[in-house]
Design goal:
Layout lengths: L2 H10 L1 H21 L4 E10 L8 H19 L2 H10 L6 H7 E5 L5 E8 L2 H23 L10 E10 L8 H26 L6 H8 L3 E6 L18 H15 L8 E6 L6 H14 L4 E5 L7 H5 L7 H5 L5 H4 L1 E2 L5 E4 L8 H5 L2 H13 L2 E5 L8 H8 L2 E7 L5 H12 L5 E9 L3 H10 L17 E2 L13
Parallel strand pairs: 5-12, 6-10, 6-11, 7-9, 7-10, 11-12
Antiparallel strand pairs: 1-3, 1-4, 2-3, 8-9, 8-13
Length: 477
């Protein structure tokens, strides 16, 4: 996983990072508030040798440095702690005092520093004073020879005892930034892990990889698409409309030697926007001057007639059962060269009806009556209707909604098409999250209507095609 991909995952799950940041700062603040203040008293000793017996400077320095290391251990000894507590009882045991004592030395130095940390400032100072006195006495007693000669080591207090005026802990100026940093690191790790474990379809590259087909378009998400799904009127100049036009171009050149004239539009699940895309693709093709026929072959939940404002009471099912002729129920939509065949009445056996010889004959006849036939089908994983229709088409267009469907579901949908040798023309990532830079590029280059110019008319409802010169060829029975 590359650094760029990790950063993209962190940006996508920014709310996780924000929550952990707030949690880290909150925990650090709570710990800071609940921790009692601790004060530190310190005293510094200087170790020297007053005896003239040690004359060599180098040997004498090594000798004193070794003694300083021993004295650091002696400061935390049981004997010294017991003598301090016995002389100055302040409610602590020898063991508690030992845990409060810390020592430090500098490499190559004969200075020894002792520190006592306590929640009571005065007690810390008194304990340090007593410790300094008892430690000097103890060292002199230990180092004094038994023959009465002067001690070879002299220990002097050169700094302190003194106690800090402000608590050494807790330290809000350190705890809060540290808590925030830990929260950021934890949030970034959780965001990357969540992204790595996320099986939903998140980008176009993953859609191409899963389906094994080319990406023909990324349809950007627009908040007003739900109320105005068609790319007409004001929506004709939107980034979504331009993406559909790109899809139109790619469809015409996806295979120059064997162009698809009957295209089945399908998806893995319901609600991924396949019907809207089928309608908009048909509209875009008609705007380019093609004779387009849009068929609503989703007989279980038809939506084409509702989106286009047409009468869907009579349509495909009535033609397939032989009640009406196809030319009597095909409707022209708006002022474009777009014809629409609604679904008609809901049949009790959609799969059998769509897979019948009548359906095959109808598609064969319609292929000769229009430049391009766009067929809206049912979702592939819900029912078998979509596969039945796709087999009879020249190819299928697979639609997947970004962030809603899993990669496994898309793979299953692609397998269902490949298993019956359906040619997947390409895939479309619908409701894609487009970056601000891409939106800006389109907005900066889109067509601007001059002041006073007539606004484009919104296409209205269609009408039935009754003129015999405009009727589609009837399938042979």
């Amino acid at each position: 996983m590359t650094v760029r991909k990790n950063l993209r995952l962190i940006r996508r799950h920014w709310w996780i990072v924000l929550l952990t940041l707030v949690a880290g700062v909150g925990i650090a603040m709570a710990v800071t508030v609940r921790t009692p203040p601790r004060y530190q008293a310190s005293v510094t000793f200087f170790v020297t040798t007053p005896t003239p017996g040690v004359t060599d400077a180098y040997r004498g320095n090594l000798f004193l440095q070794q003694r300083v290391k021993s004295y650091a251990d002696l400061l935390g000894s049981d004997r010294l702690a017991q003598s301090v507590v016995a002389e100055n009882p302040l409610g602590l045991t020898a063991g508690q005092l030992q845990r409060r004592i810390s020592t430090s030395t500098e490499e190559g130095s004969v200075l020894l520093k002792a520190e006592i940390t306590d929640t009571d400032r005065n007690r810390a100072l008194k304990l340090t004073q007593t410790l300094a006195t008892r430690f000097v006495d103890l060292v002199q007693k230990v180092e004094t020879p038994t023959d009465g000669k002067p001690a070879p080591i002299k220990l002097e207090v050169v700094s302190g005892p003194r106690v800090s005026s402000t608590p050494v802990s807790p330290r809000p100026e350190r705890n809060l930034p540290l808590g925030g940093l830990i929260g950021l690191l934890v949030g970034a790790a959780l965001a990357v892990l969540r992204g790595a474990a996320d099986v939903r379809m998140r980008d176009a590259a993953a859609l191409q990889r899963v389906t094994g087909s080319p990406l023909l378009a990324e349809i950007p998400f627009e908040s007003d698409a739900k109320s105005a799904p068609l790319i007409v009127g004001e929506a004709a100049n939107s980034a979504r409309a331009e993406a559909v036009r790109k899809l139109r171009t790619n469809l015409r050149f996806v295979d120059v030697h064997e162009p698809a004239r009957v295209i089945a539009v399908t998806s893995a699940l319901q609600g991924e926007g396949k019907t809207t895309l089928a309608c908009n693709t048909a509209i875009a093709l008609a705007e380019a001057g093609w004779r387009v026929l849009l068929i609503d072959a989703d007989l279980r939940r038809p939506k084409v007639a509702d989106y286009l404002g047409l009468d869907g009471g009579v349509g495909l099912t009535d033609v397939l059962v032989g009640d009406v002729e196809v030319g009597d129920v095909v409707q022209r939509w708006g002022d474009k060269s777009l014809l629409v065949l609604p679904s008609g009445a809901a049949p009790p056996n959609p799969s059998e009806l769509l897979g019948s010889k009548a359906m095959a004959d109808l598609l064969l006849a319609l292929r000769e009556s229009a430049d391009i036939v766009v067929v809206d089908t049912a979702p592939l994983l819900a029912v078998t209707d979509g596969v039945v229709v796709a087999v009879q088409a020249d190819g299928a267009l697979l639609v997947a909604q970004q962030g809603r469907i899993s990669r496994g579901q898309v793979a299953a949908a692609a397998r269902s098409l490949h298993s019956v040798s359906v040619r997947i023309l390409g895939c479309v990532l619908n409701m894609a999250r487009v970056g601000k830079a891409d939106k800006h590029h389109y907005a900066a280059y889109r067509v601007v209507t001059p002041p006073g110019a007539p606004r484009p008319k919104r296409a209205g409802a269609g009408k039935r095609v009754n003129d015999r010169t405009q009727q589609l060829s009837r399938p042979a029975r």
